[in-house]
């Protein structure tokens, strides 16, 4: 299952992640690149609706703006806050709260298997993402135990 994203001009798949405030993955959805970001967000939120009862606020980038904000509020009662860039600043700009997901994608990009889309099935790609995050979290726990108080 592959597609073409005309906006980014890429073939393949898109990965949608829902992370906590520390950047640890809560859920992953992988789908064809021709699916719009707003539709991918609906798949992610549908997947977690029964598991994250304390969820109240979600930060997202500008590609999730529009009717999705109202849909999330009316369907789940959550607030979807869009973090947008200002048009007056040129070049790179660190956006509040948006850097968390970008950092998570950077962590995952260090894993060779995730640097490109090698997998035949999107489910396999999602499993590798979970596996990489488990490795990241296990390394942190091991380091925290050896560091001591």
Fraction of residues in helix: 40-55%
Q: What is the number of domains? A: 1
Count of β-strands: 5
CATH class annotation: Alpha Beta
Strand content: 15-25%
Helix count from the secondary structure assignment? 5
Largest beta-sheet characterization? 3 strands, antiparallel
Describe the structure.
- With 149 residues, the chain is α+β, with helices and mostly antiparallel strands.
- Helices cover 43% and strands 19% of the residues.
- It contains 5 helices and 5 strands, in the order E-E-E-H-E-H-E-H-H-H.
- The chain has a 3-stranded antiparallel beta sheet with strand order 1-2-3, with helices on both faces. Strands 4-5 form a two-stranded parallel sheet.
- The longest helix is centred in the C-terminal third of the chain and has 26 residues, at 122-147.
Index terms:
alpha+beta, three-stranded antiparallel beta sheet, 5 strands, two-stranded parallel sheet, 149 residues, Nucleotidyltransferase, domain 5, globular
Describe the structure concisely:
This protein is 43% helix and 19% strand. With 149 residues, the protein is an alpha+beta fold. The chain has a single domain (3-147), classed as 2-Layer Sandwich (Nucleotidyltransferase, domain 5), CATH 3.30.420.
Write the layout of secondary structure elements.
Elements: E1 3-5, E2 10-19, E3 25-32, H1 37-48, E4 57-60, H2 67-76, E5 79-82, H3 98-109, H4 112-115, H5 122-147
């Amino acid at each position: 299952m592959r597609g073409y994203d005309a906006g980014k001009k890429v073939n393949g798949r898109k990965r949608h992640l829902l992370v906590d405030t520390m950047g640890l993955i809560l859920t992953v959805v992988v789908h064809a690149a021709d699916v719009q970001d707003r539709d991918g967000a609906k798949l992610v939120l549908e997947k977690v609706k029964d598991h994250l009862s304390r969820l109240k606020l979600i930060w997202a980038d500008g590609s999730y703006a529009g009717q999705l904000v109202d849909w999330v509020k009316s369907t789940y009662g959550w607030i979807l806050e869009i973090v947008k860039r200002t048009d007056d600043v040129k070049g790179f700009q660190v956006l509040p709260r948006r850097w968390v997901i970008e950092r998570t994608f950077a962590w995952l990009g260090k894993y060779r298997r995730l640097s490109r889309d090698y997998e035949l099935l999107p489910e396999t790609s999602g499993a590798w993402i979970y596996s990489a995050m488990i490795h990241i979290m296990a390394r942190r726990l091991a380091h925290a135990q050896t560091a001591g108080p």
